[in-house]
């Protein structure tokens, strides 16, 4: 690590990149970051307001060298080209669907100087999978130069398993975990991919069903656990947050008050009496950071049920992408300050909610 300044570079300004930059800029001092920059791929007048707003928050704009004249022609001042930004960066957070490609084409040649590279949910295989609070103890300095923040739905699934089944760090307590991810068809920031009616997903993975259980399996595997998980997914005609039905069968006996007690004790879990995505989303829009709740899941308490003293079923809501944003910030802080990154994250607690 040659550079002294702590510089975080975010690649991509989409659904994840834009609010991530917002969080980093808001908490820059508390997190101990000196400078923040971001890469924009396309120079578009339609994206100019977003780029300018991020620059007003203190983030510096970078672009591919050949695109610089186009950006400047449109009145967006470039601070560095992409290569220079990577050269300066202590941590790079990739928020594109091309993280694995960027790894081989761009990041690999900066490995000597950069503390860490982070990619997002779609980029399976980029590096060690991570979700804040679930597998922090699995992170290994230097060895884990590449990490992958698991998807927002995988966070949801993982925190429910962690809270209900793994309190005693005994993976044998989880007899079976089954999940149905009920996904919004597109985000409010996206125009495409909307579906006119609920559309069921295929089970592409013979063992895990969909990638959600597979990704959660790999996440827990970093702790040495091999959990019996299976997931299904369907898209519904909404742009609000994803929801999830779960069934967690435990070896131990459990009661409903114990279930609620365990969930309440975990500060990364929000409880709610609400049962609709729109009322929870609306709370996030009004009380969250850039409209995001940073809790990892929102559990709908009236839907919780215990069957046969061993099986817990219920519905949860994925707090948009706030959980992935929190884990991305946590990894940046870990790369920069492995000794006290948890303390540095404390100001973000303002956007964790016990109750929604
Ligand atoms: N959307 C969610 O709710 C959500 C939740 C959790 C995790 N994730 C994960 O986050 C990642 C990004 O998803 P997103 O929804 O934020 O995507 P998005 O809204 O489509 O934004 C993608 C961004 O990446 C940039 N980009 C695309 N291809 C690029 C390339 N080859 N090199 C550099 N930049 C490139 C685009 O730049 P231009 O605008 O300049 O074209 C855009 O800013 C994915 O891994 C996804 O799985 C998404």
From TrEMBL:
InterPro entries tied to this protein: NAD(P)-bd_dom_sf
Protein name as it appears in the record: Glyceraldehyde-3-phosphate dehydrogenase
């Amino acid at each position: 690590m040659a550079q002294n300044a702590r510089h975080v570079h975010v690649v991509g300004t989409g659904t994840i990149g834009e609010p991530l930059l917002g969080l980093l800029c808001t908490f820059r001092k508390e997190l101990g970051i000196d400078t923040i920059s971001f890469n924009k791929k396309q120079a578009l007048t339609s994206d100019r307001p977003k780029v300018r707003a991020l620059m007003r928050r203190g983030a510096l704009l970078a672009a591919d060298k050949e695109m610089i004249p186009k950006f400047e022609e449109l009145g967006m001042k470039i601070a560095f080209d992409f290569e220079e930004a990577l050269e300066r960066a202590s941590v790079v957070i990739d928020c594109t669907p091309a993280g694995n490609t960027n790894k081989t084409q761009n990041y690999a040649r900066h490995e000597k100087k950069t503390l860490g590279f982070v990619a997002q949910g779609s980029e399976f295989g980029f590096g060690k999978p991570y979700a804040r609070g679930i597998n922090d103890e699995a992170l290994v300095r230097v060895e884990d130069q590449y990490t992958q923040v698991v998807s927002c739905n995988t966070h949801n699934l993982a925190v429910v398993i962690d809270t209900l089944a793994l309190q005693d760090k005994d993976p044998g307590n989880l007899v079976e975990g089954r999940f149905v991810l009920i996904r919004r068809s597109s985000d409010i920031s996206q125009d495409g991919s909307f579906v006119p009616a609920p559309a069921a997903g295929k089970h592409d993975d013979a063992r895990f069903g969909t990638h959600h259980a597979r990704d959660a399996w790999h996440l827990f595997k970093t702790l040495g656990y091999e959990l019996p998980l299976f997931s299904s997914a369907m898209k519904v005609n909404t742009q609000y947050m994803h929801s999830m039905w779960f069934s967690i069968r435990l070896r131990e006996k459990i009661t409903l008050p114990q279930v609620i007690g365990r969930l309440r004790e975990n500060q990364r879990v929000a409880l709610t009496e609400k049962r609709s995505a729109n009322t929870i989303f609306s709370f996030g829009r009004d009380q969250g950071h850039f409209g995001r709740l940073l809790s990892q899941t929102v559990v709908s308490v009236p839907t919780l049920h215990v069957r046969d003293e061993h099986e817990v079923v219920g519905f949860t809501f994925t707090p948009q992408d706030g959980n992935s944003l929190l884990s991305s910030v946590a990894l940046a802080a870990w790369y920069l300050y492995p000794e006290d990154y948890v303390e540095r994250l404390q100001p973000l607690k303002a956007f964790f909610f016990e109750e929604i």
